[in-house]
């Protein structure tokens, strides 16, 4: 599988990364180099092998249903580029 | 009195307890070294006042007889750990000016143990890199220089390794006696090897990830970096521990690793993975590895050959899994709630995201986000991601089988000594290959450490890596100690900065 | 199974509509799915938000056990497969109401697998008999925050209070064939959720909303391309969405167009749907297992505890009401539609049975009438919507089961006549007064005192000699007149049986 310029632009847009034409063009051979290299994984016989789910034997703990957090609006908004009336503000969204 | 900044963590702790010096004197000495070492660019933010405040408290506590495990010890904090009230950036423009309103679990534990903070250490941006050349705040320079005997250019600035390059450089240059690091695919061990210090990545889940800026969640693990094995044990005891706020945290008691230190390897088996002896292995690296084998034998260990057949697939698997997780972990940097916002004239919300992320992330971060996005995208998920996670299962299985035959594994930490800044930046793959020996233990979540093994013919440090079974940091530390005692590594970078 | 005959008439013939619903139901819990922030409705913006919900750097999710328990109970209530091994996945997309840049959901290994529910026959709605609707899965996921668009001319505002609240996404099979079936499905699902107690079913507050998948086809043909209309928040709107979408799709297809698989939005003001611009490139969600969380493994005992905690569910209750209590299917359906009233009814029957010493089956009809005619009639008449007291389970400020049971006893014992029963009910319905006390206080006891009745009859016969003569001459219809006069004279308190008997005697 190799990527072309269109694919690079599509993926960049999916990742919400604005790329210039030149950046996109430079990424094409770079990505192909990396992808060609990782594709050697295809050689490995993985018949009957489960994909890893937990690297160390451990099980998911569940919390009790108790309110222990929240009411920290100042902390939540402290680093906001734009906060107004207790909200985060963003450019108007049309749904 | 000898220079306080030449002391190890254990020596500072014990000397301070014994009344040989005050915590304030220690903090001032390190603050002075930090202030005088701007040329290394090891710190993004210096916090001398934090170190002094902790020292003041330590001096009071000593008077009151309420000493804590790290009272009197100032340390460096990798700028990937969120620190309340102190800018935390992950070395990215994206988070420039971000001041957390919370403290990471690991840093909080260290402060609770009495440690003080000298500053926030530079790193590869979002911990992505092996040379500390991807930081928005500039490269970190290694204090080491090549011996110019063979005309290689002794003045070429060298990479301190990465991503914890600020940590390694600062420790090697005596700017702090110890520091935190994080290791996703070698980011503690490789920089430790490059700068002639020690560092341990514990078992995945030992140290809480809460409050550490995420790179690849299933791999990220915090650990200490310091000048010797004992200091690593002391630091790790004060960083590790169960945290209910991290679902992957291990609910296990923290062993007393320092008290358990022993360099006696009698009855222990050390595995040498044959697949690591790759064709074209650097002669210096091979020589130091052989020396390591000899030292462990001398310490009483039996040497056995083991096989890790899927080793060669570890790096490609890592470069699917880590970017995939990163592409998702870094989606939160969107200019809405914190960090940089780029809002070009007339931009809508989605334009704002794309502009913000284009301006905020560095080239390597973008490259990995794009790879990660691609391998997870429709139609490719199974071929790349699922296949890589299956290979990861096989890699973990290789280790499990090897540990049926040995107690620890000995291998090189990195395939070469430190390279010059700029040497590998043009070729991402060449850079990635630096972690070829470090990545397998990361994929398997195993404890692994690097200790200095000797010098290359250019006079640069080389590290030896010890990998242990899950939960057995003690075995790793003990083998490290056995090597340390025999290697007699006393070389240090000559001060030029 | 009789298929629905609902058809959309087109120029090229009749079309059939195929409907699947993805219902998002907010799990009843104190705290959020992965954080300790509160879930209560209507708080100040961004006040019920933890650093985890705001996706601050380095924050991590820890799942809430109660949310898992409620989803498992819900799964058991629709007889679904409970997966002892499930996993959380990340669904990646960028939107201002989604702080992490991904929603933690379950795609590959949901908590609950295949199940089903039965919608009830409703002749009038074109559902000739009960119909089983398949449910593909229930998975647990995070809700998003809220975007406000009308506070500022050029900006939208983000409130993360809902961000991270636990939802169950209940995904049906495309088994519905008419708006009525879809409406019945949502109502039945809501009833089950409310019985189980896993969701309050409050569609106005957004605790339950449906993504409506609609396609059309010629009967017997393959499924057509579907559209998904998001977040429809009432039964009526679900039905309107389907009607509009089916018609629109038929028009598009018949004029030579094709249906694009897309996300649409319903406009309640116009009853129409339109394509959603903001989600147009959101098809590639790049799902993968959330590396911050381990697989979720349930023990048998956890699942058994969930099973034992389930109440009697609406279908079982209906069956019992018909088969054991002898109610009509209609009554049983009405009584079980709302869990609060069904519980009230069960308690009323139990109490009345104790109060009267009669079998449940003997007094159930009276209890059903009290609820369906009197109480519901009263609520309709006065336009009250009734909430239940959280502690007592009794309706707030309305007739309690104790009052109801006593009222029925008074009737059963012949102490209250039909008209008096009605009078007493209305008088005490909104008061705490016990019926017997009211009857006592107003001297309303029905009398069988033959002396008093005889005296009244004697006076009436004396005052109406002409009518007595006519009656005796064969105009027997006049008997009713004498009964009425006697009752009137007795102010309604006379036992009608006794009046009849005494009148017959007096008139010879
Ligand atoms: Mg949906
Ligand atoms: Zn959903």
Can you characterise this structure?
The complex is a heterotrimer of chains A (95), B (497) and C (508). Chain A is mostly helical. Helix content of chain A is 35%, strand content 7%. In chain A, strand 1 and strand 2 form a beta hairpin. The longest helix of chain A has 18 residues. The radius of gyration of chain A is 23 Å and the shape is flat. Chain A starts with a helix and ends with a strand. The mean pLDDT of chain A is 95. By secondary structure, chain B is α/β, with parallel strands linked by helices. In chain B, 36% of the residues lie in helices and 12% in strands. Chain B contains 15 helices and eleven strands. Chain C folds into three domains: 296 residues, no CATH class; 131 residues, no CATH class; 57 residues, Arc Repressor Mutant, subunit A. The termini of chain C are far apart. Chains A and B meet through helix 1, helix 2, helix 3 and strand 2 of A and helix 9, helix 10, helix 11 and helix 12 of B. Strand 2 of chain A pairs antiparallel with strand 9 of chain C. Chain C: It comes from Sphingobium nicotianae.
Task: Based on the model shown, name its key terms.
heterotrimer, A: 95 residues, mainly alpha, Histone, subunit A, two-stranded antiparallel sheet, 3 helices, 35% helix, B: 497 residues, alpha/beta, Amidase signature (AS) enzymes, eight-stranded mixed beta sheet, three-stranded mixed beta sheet, 15 helices, binds magnesium ion, binds zinc ion, ATP binding (chain A), Asp/Glu-ADT_sf_sub_c (chain A), EC 6.3.5.- (chain A), GatC (chain A)
